[in-house]
Amino acid sequence: MNLNADPQELAKFGDLAHRWWDADGEFRPLHQINPLRLDWIDGLARIQGKAVLDVGCGGGILAESMAQRGADVLGIDLSTKPLKVAMLHAMESGVQRLRYREVAAEALAAEQPASFDVVTCMEMLEHVPEPASVVRACATLAKPGGWVFFSTLNRNLKSWLFAIVGAEHVLKLLPKGTHEYQRFIRPAELTGWVREAGLEPVGFKGMEYNPLTQRYWLSADTSVNYLLACRVPG
Protein backbone atom coordinates (compact mmCIF):
# COMPACT_ATOMS: atom_id res chain seq x y z
CA MET A 1 0.00 0.00 0.00
CA ASN A 2 1.39 3.38 -0.98
CA LEU A 3 1.71 5.79 1.91
CA ASN A 4 -0.82 8.62 1.63
CA ALA A 5 1.67 11.31 2.64
CA ASP A 6 3.67 14.07 1.01
CA PRO A 7 7.35 13.89 2.06
CA GLN A 8 7.72 17.66 1.62
CA GLU A 9 4.77 18.29 3.93
CA LEU A 10 6.18 15.94 6.57
CA ALA A 11 9.57 17.64 6.34
CA LYS A 12 8.01 21.11 6.56
CA PHE A 13 6.31 20.39 9.88
CA GLY A 14 9.26 18.33 11.08
CA ASP A 15 11.60 21.30 10.65
CA LEU A 16 9.34 23.41 12.89
CA ALA A 17 8.72 20.69 15.47
CA HIS A 18 10.80 22.31 18.24
CA ARG A 19 8.51 25.36 18.05
CA TRP A 20 5.24 23.43 18.37
CA TRP A 21 4.53 24.34 22.01
CA ASP A 22 5.73 27.95 21.78
CA ALA A 23 2.40 29.77 22.13
CA ASP A 24 3.96 32.91 20.60
CA GLY A 25 5.76 31.13 17.74
CA GLU A 26 4.80 29.74 14.35
CA PHE A 27 2.02 27.59 15.81
CA ARG A 28 0.40 30.40 17.77
CA PRO A 29 -2.84 30.15 15.72
CA LEU A 30 -3.18 26.48 16.71
CA HIS A 31 -2.88 27.40 20.37
CA GLN A 32 -5.43 30.18 19.96
CA ILE A 33 -8.05 28.09 18.16
CA ASN A 34 -7.56 24.95 20.26
CA PRO A 35 -10.03 25.91 23.03
CA LEU A 36 -12.70 26.66 20.41
CA ARG A 37 -12.24 23.30 18.73
CA LEU A 38 -12.02 21.43 22.00
CA ASP A 39 -15.24 22.92 23.38
CA TRP A 40 -17.09 22.28 20.12
CA ILE A 41 -15.96 18.64 19.94
CA ASP A 42 -16.63 18.03 23.62
CA GLY A 43 -20.01 19.76 23.46
CA LEU A 44 -21.20 17.32 20.79
CA ALA A 45 -19.35 14.10 21.64
CA ARG A 46 -18.86 14.33 25.43
CA ILE A 47 -15.31 12.96 25.32
CA GLN A 48 -14.71 12.20 29.03
CA GLY A 49 -14.00 8.49 29.48
CA LYS A 50 -14.19 7.82 25.75
CA ALA A 51 -11.64 6.32 23.36
CA VAL A 52 -10.50 9.18 21.11
CA LEU A 53 -8.18 9.11 18.09
CA ASP A 54 -6.49 12.29 16.81
CA VAL A 55 -5.37 11.75 13.20
CA GLY A 56 -2.49 14.01 12.12
CA CYS A 57 -1.87 15.07 15.70
CA GLY A 58 1.39 16.92 15.02
CA GLY A 59 2.93 18.13 18.27
CA GLY A 60 -0.13 17.11 20.27
CA ILE A 61 -1.90 20.39 21.10
CA LEU A 62 -5.44 19.02 20.60
CA ALA A 63 -4.63 15.45 21.67
CA GLU A 64 -3.17 16.57 25.00
CA SER A 65 -6.07 18.91 25.73
CA MET A 66 -8.59 16.11 25.06
CA ALA A 67 -6.70 13.82 27.44
CA GLN A 68 -6.81 16.58 30.06
CA ARG A 69 -10.60 16.52 29.69
CA GLY A 70 -10.62 12.84 30.65
CA ALA A 71 -10.58 11.15 27.24
CA ASP A 72 -8.41 8.11 26.53
CA VAL A 73 -6.45 9.52 23.57
CA LEU A 74 -4.25 8.06 20.85
CA GLY A 75 -2.52 10.60 18.62
CA ILE A 76 -1.09 9.45 15.29
CA ASP A 77 1.09 11.19 12.72
CA LEU A 78 3.69 10.33 10.08
CA SER A 79 6.05 13.22 10.89
CA THR A 80 8.59 11.83 13.35
CA LYS A 81 9.89 15.02 14.95
CA PRO A 82 6.51 16.52 15.92
CA LEU A 83 5.51 13.14 17.44
CA LYS A 84 8.67 13.13 19.58
CA VAL A 85 7.86 16.68 20.69
CA ALA A 86 4.31 15.56 21.54
CA MET A 87 5.58 12.61 23.59
CA LEU A 88 8.08 14.77 25.46
CA HIS A 89 5.49 17.45 26.24
CA ALA A 90 3.05 14.81 27.51
CA MET A 91 5.76 13.47 29.84
CA GLU A 92 6.55 16.96 31.10
CA SER A 93 2.85 17.74 31.59
CA GLY A 94 2.22 14.48 33.41
CA VAL A 95 -1.00 14.04 31.47
CA GLN A 96 -2.50 10.57 31.76
CA ARG A 97 -4.37 8.44 29.22
CA LEU A 98 -2.43 9.76 26.24
CA ARG A 99 -0.41 7.70 23.73
CA TYR A 100 1.23 8.45 20.41
CA ARG A 101 2.09 6.29 17.41
CA GLU A 102 3.82 6.90 14.09
CA VAL A 103 1.31 5.20 11.82
CA ALA A 104 -0.89 6.13 8.84
CA ALA A 105 -4.64 6.40 9.37
CA GLU A 106 -5.21 3.83 6.62
CA ALA A 107 -2.84 1.32 8.28
CA LEU A 108 -4.45 1.81 11.69
CA ALA A 109 -7.91 1.40 10.12
CA ALA A 110 -6.87 -2.01 8.77
CA GLU A 111 -5.47 -2.93 12.18
CA GLN A 112 -8.14 -1.53 14.52
CA PRO A 113 -11.47 -0.94 12.73
CA ALA A 114 -14.42 0.35 14.79
CA SER A 115 -12.19 0.99 17.82
CA PHE A 116 -12.81 4.65 18.73
CA ASP A 117 -15.81 6.57 20.08
CA VAL A 118 -14.46 9.81 18.62
CA VAL A 119 -12.07 10.47 15.72
CA THR A 120 -10.66 13.96 15.06
CA CYS A 121 -8.73 15.02 11.95
CA MET A 122 -7.89 18.72 12.13
CA GLU A 123 -6.00 20.77 9.52
CA MET A 124 -4.62 17.64 7.91
CA LEU A 125 -6.72 16.84 4.83
CA GLU A 126 -5.25 19.76 2.89
CA HIS A 127 -1.74 18.37 3.42
CA VAL A 128 -2.15 14.83 1.99
CA PRO A 129 -2.23 13.63 -1.64
CA GLU A 130 -5.51 11.69 -1.22
CA PRO A 131 -7.75 13.34 1.41
CA ALA A 132 -10.71 11.07 0.57
CA SER A 133 -8.58 8.08 1.65
CA VAL A 134 -8.07 9.66 5.08
CA VAL A 135 -11.81 10.33 5.37
CA ARG A 136 -12.52 6.65 4.63
CA ALA A 137 -9.94 5.57 7.22
CA CYS A 138 -11.45 7.86 9.87
CA ALA A 139 -14.91 6.42 9.15
CA THR A 140 -13.55 2.87 9.47
CA LEU A 141 -11.79 3.64 12.75
CA ALA A 142 -14.92 5.01 14.47
CA LYS A 143 -17.36 2.74 16.29
CA PRO A 144 -21.02 2.49 15.23
CA GLY A 145 -22.74 5.56 16.68
CA GLY A 146 -19.38 7.30 17.06
CA TRP A 147 -18.34 10.81 16.07
CA VAL A 148 -15.86 11.95 13.42
CA PHE A 149 -14.66 15.56 13.20
CA PHE A 150 -12.79 17.25 10.37
CA SER A 151 -11.42 20.75 9.88
CA THR A 152 -9.86 22.20 6.75
CA LEU A 153 -9.82 25.22 4.43
CA ASN A 154 -12.36 26.16 1.78
CA ARG A 155 -11.15 26.75 -1.80
CA ASN A 156 -12.23 30.12 -3.17
CA LEU A 157 -10.82 33.62 -3.73
CA LYS A 158 -11.56 34.73 -0.16
CA SER A 159 -9.77 31.76 1.39
CA TRP A 160 -6.74 32.38 -0.83
CA LEU A 161 -6.68 36.03 0.24
CA PHE A 162 -7.24 35.30 3.94
CA ALA A 163 -5.38 32.02 4.51
CA ILE A 164 -2.38 32.52 2.23
CA VAL A 165 -1.92 36.20 1.36
CA GLY A 166 -3.21 37.47 4.71
CA ALA A 167 -2.12 34.82 7.20
CA GLU A 168 1.23 33.86 5.65
CA HIS A 169 2.46 37.03 3.92
CA VAL A 170 0.80 40.10 5.47
CA LEU A 171 0.03 39.20 9.09
CA LYS A 172 2.71 36.48 9.26
CA LEU A 173 0.48 34.31 11.46
CA LEU A 174 1.87 31.23 9.71
CA PRO A 175 5.19 30.45 8.00
CA LYS A 176 5.19 31.10 4.24
CA GLY A 177 4.39 27.94 2.32
CA THR A 178 2.27 26.42 5.10
CA HIS A 179 -0.63 25.96 2.68
CA GLU A 180 -1.05 25.25 -1.03
CA TYR A 181 -4.23 26.76 -2.44
CA GLN A 182 -4.94 23.94 -4.90
CA ARG A 183 -5.16 21.51 -1.97
CA PHE A 184 -7.91 23.45 -0.22
CA ILE A 185 -11.23 21.56 -0.05
CA ARG A 186 -14.72 22.90 -0.69
CA PRO A 187 -17.40 21.85 1.84
CA ALA A 188 -19.36 20.11 -0.94
CA GLU A 189 -16.29 18.00 -1.79
CA LEU A 190 -15.74 17.02 1.85
CA THR A 191 -19.43 16.24 2.28
CA GLY A 192 -19.25 13.97 -0.77
CA TRP A 193 -16.27 12.04 0.62
CA VAL A 194 -17.93 11.79 4.02
CA ARG A 195 -21.13 10.33 2.59
CA GLU A 196 -19.17 7.92 0.34
CA ALA A 197 -17.35 6.72 3.49
CA GLY A 198 -20.70 5.94 5.13
CA LEU A 199 -20.72 8.86 7.55
CA GLU A 200 -23.67 11.16 8.20
CA PRO A 201 -22.81 14.89 8.20
CA VAL A 202 -24.28 16.53 11.29
CA GLY A 203 -23.22 20.14 10.93
CA PHE A 204 -20.65 22.68 9.77
CA LYS A 205 -19.01 25.47 11.75
CA GLY A 206 -16.91 28.25 10.30
CA MET A 207 -13.93 29.82 12.05
CA GLU A 208 -13.27 33.54 11.74
CA TYR A 209 -10.40 35.81 12.80
CA ASN A 210 -10.21 39.53 13.50
CA PRO A 211 -6.62 40.76 12.96
CA LEU A 212 -7.29 43.94 14.97
CA THR A 213 -8.44 42.18 18.13
CA GLN A 214 -6.41 39.02 17.30
CA ARG A 215 -9.46 36.99 18.29
CA TYR A 216 -10.88 33.81 16.74
CA TRP A 217 -14.46 32.62 17.03
CA LEU A 218 -16.80 29.98 15.59
CA SER A 219 -19.60 31.15 13.31
CA ALA A 220 -21.84 30.10 10.43
CA ASP A 221 -19.33 31.50 7.89
CA THR A 222 -17.54 28.53 6.27
CA SER A 223 -15.92 30.58 3.49
CA VAL A 224 -12.34 30.22 4.85
CA ASN A 225 -11.68 27.82 7.76
CA TYR A 226 -14.42 25.35 8.59
CA LEU A 227 -15.15 22.30 10.72
CA LEU A 228 -17.50 19.38 10.01
CA ALA A 229 -19.05 17.02 12.56
CA CYS A 230 -20.20 13.54 11.41
CA ARG A 231 -21.80 10.49 12.97
CA VAL A 232 -21.32 6.84 12.18
CA PRO A 233 -24.74 5.21 11.65
CA GLY A 234 -25.81 2.84 14.40
TrEMBL record:
The keyword Nucleotide-binding does not apply. S-adenosyl-L-methionine binds at R37, G56, D77, M122. Pathway: Cofactor biosynthesis; ubiquinone biosynthesis. Keywords: Methyltransferase, S-adenosyl-L-methionine, Transferase, Ubiquinone biosynthesis. The keyword S-adenosyl-L-methionine applies. It holds the Pfam family Methyltransf_23. It is an enzyme of class 2 (transferase). Its EC number is 2.1.1.222, 2.1.1.64. SUPFAM superfamilies: S-adenosyl-L-methionine-dependent methyltransferases. O-methyltransferase that catalyzes the 2 O-methylation steps in the ubiquinone biosynthetic pathway. Belongs to the methyltransferase superfamily. UbiG/COQ3 family. NCBIfam families: UbiG (TIGR01983). This is Ubiquinone biosynthesis O-methyltransferase. It comes from Pseudaquabacterium inlustre. The lineage of its organism: Bacteria, Pseudomonadati, Pseudomonadota, Betaproteobacteria, Burkholderiales.
